[in-house]
Design goal:
The structure is a single chain. The protein is an alpha+beta fold and 321 residues long. The protein folds into two domains: 117 residues, Aminotransferase class 4, branched-chain amino acid transferase, N-terminal domain (D-amino Acid Aminotransferase, Chain A, domain 1), CATH 3.30.470.10; 164 residues, D-amino Acid Aminotransferase, subunit A, domain 2 (D-amino Acid Aminotransferase, Chain A, domain 2), CATH 3.20.10.10. It contains seven helices and 16 strands. The strands form three sheets. Strands 1, 2, 3, 4, 5, 6, 7 and 16 form an eight-stranded antiparallel sheet that branches. Strands 9-8-14-15 form a four-stranded mixed sheet. Strands 12-11-10-13 form a four-stranded mixed sheet, with helices on one face. A hairpin with an 8-residue loop joins strand 14 and strand 15.
């Protein structure tokens, strides 16, 4: 039996074509993914809008789920349309209006050799109420730590996929940052440039230009990231995509994370611990307060996902058609 203390309002989850009570286990302890991280997943949000609950960029998330599955040589046992309908069903059954959604494809019970030759692919979908991962206060910036370990490089693994096993690095470094009193971690890539957070993309603002990096910098090009670039252009800001050095971050006028779970939290202070032999150095981003452009982008993003901006209604999939 499992309670839902940390999964508010979660009553049902979807597995193998059926709804199950949240408290009832249904996966074998010898499932392949549990031992080797052979899973792929998405983080998706549904928001309350004037037209009822709507899922933000649902087709794009499911498209990426299938891309991720292909990197693990998974044969997905459902169509994209079936998964979309299953997600809507989970939201309805849990009577959720604003929530986080987690679909996960994984190699299940069959064998425990490294190659999952006899382990079928299964899908689970859960949803629950979950506020922004790093806090809901847009006026409170986050304090981050550049960790000494480098992000998995795009020459080593397909970093455009959300692979469960890769996130062990995120879990370790996220815990490291918090053990030292920080809100979140930042990775450098093997080239020594800024890569991303454990589960977030990074933007900087300098002289009014909104800049982020791309997959050549060993990052997952997030759907929230893509949306913010479009929103920034819509607000009249110049945007740029390219490498971000440590100095670029330290000298930025503003900086912020982006991602489905975190949304758009500002970064106000950074400790660089990336080169242990050089010790740690602290940097204040801009004035040390949440910047004007970051605030405008965060507000515009919130309005867009909440169905308040007509031009971005194209991103919303109504739960109750």
């Amino acid at each position: 039996m499992f309670d839902n203390t940390h999964f508010p309002r979660a009553k049902k989850f979807w597995h193998k074509g059926k709804l199950h009570d949240w408290s009832q286990p249904s996966i074998h302890v010898m499932s392949h993914a549990l031992h080797y991280g052979t899973s792929v997943f998405e983080g998706i949000r549904v928001y309350n809008t004037p037209k009822g609950p709507a899922v933000f960029r649902l087709p794009e998330h499911i498209e990426r789920l299938f891309h991720s599955a292909s990197t693990l040589f998974m044969e997905v046992p459902y169509s994209k349309e079936e998964i979309i309908e299953a997600i809507k069903l989970v939201i309805k059954e849990n009577k959720l209006e604003s929530a986080y959604i987690r679909p996960l494809l994984f190699y299940s019970y069959g064998n425990l050799g490294l190659l999952p030759k006899y382990s079928p692919v299964e899908l689970i979908i859960g949803a629950w109420e979950w506020g922004a991962y790093l806090g809901d206060d847009p006026k409170k910036g986050v304090y981050v730590y550049i960790v000494p370990w480098r992000r998995v490089h795009h020459s080593q693994l397909e970093m455009t996929a959300k692979l469960g096993g890769v996130y062990v690095q995120s879990a370790i470094c996220g815990q490291l940052a918090r053990s030292k009193g920080f809100d979140e971690a930042i990775f450098l890539n093997l080239e020594g440039n800024i890569a991303e957070g454990p589960g977030e993309n990074i933007f900087i603002v300098k002289d009014g230009v909104v800049k982020t990096n791309d997959k050549t910098e060993s990052v997952l090009e997030g759907i929230t990231r893509e949306s913010l670039l479009e929103i920034a252009v819509g607000l009249g800001y110049e945007t740029s995509i390219g490498a971000i050095t440590r100095e670029d971050l330290f000298k930025a006028d503003e900086a912020f994370f982006s991602g489905t779970a975190v949304e758009v939290p500002p970064i106000v202070r950074v400790i660089d611990g990336s080169i242990p032999r050089e010790g740690k150095r602290e940097y204040t981003i801009g004035s040390g307060k949440v910047g004007e452009i970051t605030t405008k982008l965060a507000t515009a993003y919130k309005d867009s996902v909440s169905g308040k901006v007509k031009q971005y209604e194209k991103w919303l999939t109504s739960v109750y058609d």
